[in-house]
Structure formats: structure tokens, C-alpha cells
Amino acid sequence: MKDRIGKAVFWVGWSKGFVQFLSFLSTLYIARLLSPNDYGLMAMTGIWVGALAIVTEMGLSAVIIQFKDLDDRELNLCFWGALGMAGVGYGILYAAAPAIADWFAVPMLCEILRVVSLTLPLTAVRIIPDGLLRKALALDKTSRAEILAVGVALPVQVAMASAGFGVWALVTGTLLMPLMQSVVTFKLSAWRPGIRMGSARARAILNFGSAKLGGSISWAVYEQTDSLVLGKISGEVGVGLYSMAKQIALLPVHKISVVVNQIAFPLMAGLQDNVEQMRSVFLRQIRMVACLTFPLCIGLALVTEDLVWVALTEKWLPLVPVLQVLCVSSVVRSCEVLFPPLLLARYRASVLFRWTIGLLLVMPIAFWAGAALSGGLGVALVWALVYPVMIAGMAQRALREIHLNWKLVWDEVAPIVKGTIVMAISVSMLHSAMHTTDAATHMLRLVLSIGLGAVVYSGCIFWQGGRLVGEIVQLVRWVIGKDMTFNPKSTTKGA
User: How many Cα atoms sit within 13 Å of 216 on the Cβ side?
Assistant: First the structure.
């Protein structure tokens, strides 16, 4: 187990770093070539495809990881069930596309939606082999699949955008990614589907999967409601600006916190009967995630104007205040994703379901009010002000499962918060002292801000000392492949 976790960190660290670096650069380059309208069309499409993708997945990824010793008949049942649901989902979206386009008053959306919906079966086909690889912590193989998929999709996407294909460059990349990832995942997995299906644990699997699915559906609906409401009120340009801001603001969440969860869920599932080790692992996770995401989110909020000037050009400047608010909200969201694996590992999927139902009842109304009052900025403020209140109860229940309280959690992140505050003050002082007039001065201030922030924050963390410094050193050794071992008990002291 220790060797597998160390190997998983090594592969996830390098593959995610490489893939996300390329993705970020290509996103910035393509955004310079395309318009907010193009991104608005994709955001409107993603609302429906994203929601149906979660429905057709049926909670099976969690079932594969959580349940021990699934036999071939059970795996076959899950595979064909997911593929059948994906086919039904595609048929529903194909038939509903004209009505959706009419509702948004964007005729072109119909054709785009019918094409992008093909991602449903392309993604469903890899649910089982991908889940088996993740359950075994064979993240080196899932990482290879992702690297190869990105390596094929991104060059095609960039070439099409450069050739003037507009939104169809984004559509093509959206299709190529799951296609290549599914092909490579099947190649690297030893499992193959068969036709014999059945299970003596069908009821238990169905109950767990249904609760997970119910929570996922509710999450998908409220998560996409911001774009849905904004698209209806502000049109494709408004939602295009917002979707780009949201994509950039959530980079630390998607590229760090979600990556940690790829290891956390199977690890927590394996430790489900050992509360002490679950508590130790969770505290280490929240320290490491906060150590990276807090300064990144706040730093990104501080340099937003310079970043947009340099990377996206003037046509994207209206997103600056929206991006700044979303970056602040991402501080909370980066840690929030660490709590659900605790509940799932303890078979508390029903708690997540009830929580997401609450979100579904509150967040859409808040989004509508925010969008009506102040467009994209109003929606961003909902994420910053309302969402943290909504997650408090779920997080409290998760902490109770591993016998933790908020004071102990604060003790773990306090040095990180202090370092982030000092960094923010330093960068703000630099911005006040350095005025910008053109792209060149924005570039200079951006570079100086990043350098100053990195030096000040690192200095604060190492000056305060503590076990966080040792864990940073160990993480670096994992990433460079020098140390492939992991000891969850090493975090027990003081926990």
C-alpha cells in the first residue's frame, strides 16, 4: 500500500502538472483567437451534457471503488447499465436540442449540442476499467491515458482555432478527449466486459449507487445553474465571460484538490474501519491542499488585471471583477472537496444526498437574484457569500465521523492563513507603488508580483516551521520519485 501511494503521488503530480500546464497555455492561446461568444456557446452546451453525464454514470465510479471483491457478473452489470443509460441520455439531448436552443434564443446551439452529446457514450464506456484502475491506485495508468488524450486533442484544437473554425475547435477537442482516454484506458486495463450479469449484492449496490447518484444529480443541477441562469439573463457573451472567469478561478481546485481526491477516495475506502488513520490522513490532506491553494487563489485574485491584459487581451477585461470574486470563493471550494470522501468511505452517501438537495433548493434562487442584480458579478458573489454557509453542515458531519472539531482543523491551517495574509499585503503594496500604462508594464508588474508573492509566502511557511515543512519536503521527494513510501501514522501526533 505504501509503495502504491507513493507511486500514485509521483505519477499524478507529474502527469497533472504537465497536462494542466499544456491545457492552461492552450486555453489562453485559443481564448485570444476566439470570442467570449464562442465560450458562451460551449458553456450553454456544457450545462446539459454535464448534467446528463452524471445521471448516466449512475454513481458507479464510487460503487467500483467502495465495494470490495466485485465479481465479473457485477462488473458486467455495471458496464452495460452505464452504457445503456448513456445511449438514452444522448437520445434525450438529441431530441431536446431544438427546444433548448429556442429557450436560449441561440439557433446555433442545437447543432452544437447534438454533436457534443456524443461525449456521453464515449465517457460511459471507460467508467468500469477506469474505476478498477483507481481502486488499485494504478494512477500511473490513468495518468498515461489522460496524457495521451490531451496530447492528441490539444494540437487539433489549437490548429482548428488558428484556421478560423471558431467554436468548432472547442467542440472537436471536447469529443477527442474522452474518445482517446477511453481507448487508452481499455488498453491499459486487464478487465474486459462480458455478457453474464447478476449480483447477490444488487440491493446494497443499488442503494449506495442511488444515494451517490442522487447527490451527484443535485450537485450537477446546482453547479450548472449559475451558467443556465446567466445565459438566460445575459446571453452568450455574458455567460462566455463568466465561464472563462470560472474556469481560471477554479484552476487550483481542479488541478490540486480534485487531484488529491483521486488518491483520497480509494485510500479512505481502504481505511474505512480505522477512524484514527482516516483522521491522520485527512489532516495531512487539508494541510497540503491549503498550503498550495490558499496562496494560489488569493494571489490569482491580486494579479487578475495584469493576467487578463497579458494573456487574454483587452476584449476579456470585463471579466476582471468576476474573476477576482471567484478566486476568493475558490479558497473555500479547494478544501470543501476533501470532506465528501470521508462520508462516502463511512457509507454516508445519504448525508451527501440531503446536502446537495439543500444546495439545489437554495443556490438556483440565489444565482437568479445575483444575475438579475449584477450579472456575472452577482453570480460570483453568491459563490463567495452563500456557498460557504451551505457547506458548513456537511463539513461538520464529516468531521464528526472521524472525531475532529473545527479548532483542530484551524490549528492545522493557521500558519498557512498567516503566510497568505502576509503575501497578500506585500503584493498589494507592490501594486499600489507600481502604476501600469500598457501591456509591457502589466507584464512587468505580473512577473514581479508572482516572484514577490512566492518568496514572501515560502519564507513565512519555513519561518513558522512545524510538521508542514517536513511534509512539503516529503511531497517534493514523492514528486521527483526519490521516496515512494507513505505512512499515515506519521500525522497522528498532535492530531
Answer: 20
Nine cell digits for residue 472: 512539503
Helix and strand numbers (H, E) in the chain are: 21, 0
Contact by Cβ (8 Å): 137, 263: yes
The DSSP 8-state label assigned to residue 395 in this structure reads H
Q: Whole-angstrom Cα distance, residue 20 to residue 17?
A: 5
Burial class (CB in 10 A: 0-12, 13-18, 19+), 259: buried
Q: Is 351 exposed, middle or buried (0-12, 13-18, 19+ CB in 10 A)?
A: buried
Torsion angle defined by CA atoms of residues 136, 139, 142 and 145, in that order, rounded to the nearest 10 degrees: -140
Which grid cell sits at 167?
467554436
Read off the C-alpha cell for 380. Answer: 460570483
Look-up of cell digits 483521486: 262
Closest CA to 252 of 330, 325, 322, 323: 330
pLDDT, average across residues 401-430: 93
280's grid cell:
491522520
Give me the residue label for grid cell 438529441: 94
Identify the burial level of 252 via C-beta atoms within 10 angstroms of its C-beta, where 0-12 means exposed, 13-18 middle and 19 or more buried: buried
CA distance 104 to 413: 44
Predicted confidence (pLDDT) per residue in 145-188, tens digit: 888 898 899 999 999 999 999 999 999 999 999 999 999 999 99
CA distance 342 to 352: 11
